[in-house]
Amino acid sequence: MAHPADSASTPPAPNVGEDGAIHSPPLPPQRGRPKVVIVMGATGAGKSRLAVDLAAHFAGVEVVSADSMQVYRGLDVLTNKVPLHEQKGVPHHLLSVIDPSVEFTCRDFRDHAVPIIQEILDRGGLPVIVGGTNFYIQALVSPFLFDDMAQDMQDCTLSDHPDGIGLTNDDEGGGYERLKEIDHVAAQRIHPNDHRKIKRYLELYATTGALPSNLFQGEAAKKWGRASNSKFDCCFLWVDADLQVLDNYVNQRVDCMMDAGLLDEVCDIYDPDGVYTQGLRQAIGVREFDEFFRLYLTRKESDNNKATSSATMLSVHDDQLKSMLDEAVSQLKTNTRRLVRRQRRRLHRLSKDFGWNLHRVDATKAFCCTTGNSWNKEVVEPCVDVVKSFLADGTTCSPSTNASDGIGEREVWTQYVCEACDKRVLRGAHEWEQHRQGRGHRKRVQRLKQKRSQMRPSESS
């Protein structure tokens, strides 16, 4: 089993602070902190399956879903909710509990999940948090939300009663302009169309008087995003696999979803005037079928038989509709594969930059091998060993020594513009470096160089 931090098995070296003083290595997790297991990984990696399998080895396992789309009622096939028969009697929480039309934020997840986890602990059970929405998990186990950080920002409060900042204005564009007036550094950090974050920044300033950009400086920033400051004692399991293997599995899973009634589900919530930026309609696989349903349902209006089903839609003979359906399925696969990459990048960053000790388990052989025992041998057994050690003394989950010191001091606010990629805006040095190393960026830069080299001879003549 591979670990992001190879040095986890040896005592960490003393840390030298900015003041030159030598600080003691991190203490073992406090015995008083409640223990939770957190299963992370990209979509399709097998997180839910592993969580259910852990219940066969540990008493009182209850699963708490940390998936931003599975929390909504509806789209069970598209969002890949664990069917009841596959739950094998293991209690599952936060599945299909939220109205599909409302917004469910990281803060909402935390406020729902914490009482559930506490109830499981009170029953003497073992909470197992499972999901691919890494921001949800980060909000749950670390000082991650602005509200958390603002509690440590008394020195940054500008006034005792901040008011008159125009929060009652419904003009979303005006909100961004107001943010620029209040805190131009924070405004530079976010996209003008990120209305949710703009609203949170303004609300934060209204309630605390703290500038959002100040949250990433000083003592509050040093705690931001780090699991070592959690109220829980966390054991992180990262189920991963070779990227090509995950890509192939995602493609196959989409095909299975199509056969299982995905189109029926999406058709049921289709609204030609619907908004794809809030609630369940944000799910990958909804927007992709918009053009298909727009034409398909329009043509069905003129038919005598207006009944729709996956079978009739999949067997459509109209060449234009068939082409649009094929394109939608292809786009669904592409966007899901992109999601896999974003999730994996985020996990790497949680390990490298935030010090999360993610116990990575490589499931590649389990995906490739057809024998029935491969999953248990390659995935379940290594994870059971990690959890047993964690429950015995907690030593497996000390902060990773690979983490960058002073994440809060890192440059995260500067805005970068990539001329080669149609003036794409990147925020912070980390995003910029990730973009520069990307295959797409490098290809565009190479084409731009070739174009310029071809223009030079003509210019000289």
TrEMBL record:
SUPFAM superfamilies: beta-beta-alpha zinc fingers, P-loop containing nucleoside triphosphate hydrolases. One of its GO terms (cellular component) is mitochondrion. The keyword Transmembrane does not apply. Residues 1-33, 432-461 are annotated as: Disordered. Keywords: ATP-binding, Cytokinin biosynthesis, Nucleotide-binding, Transferase. One of its GO terms (biological process) is cytokinin biosynthetic process. GO terms for molecular function: ATP binding; tRNA dimethylallyltransferase activity. It holds the Pfam family IPPT. Residues 437-454 have a biased composition (Basic residues). InterPro entries: Dimethylallyltransferase (IPR039657), IPT (IPR018022), P-loop_NTPase (IPR027417), Znf_C2H2_sf (IPR036236). HAMAP family: IPP_trans (MF_00185). Belongs to the IPP transferase family. This is tRNA dimethylallyltransferase.
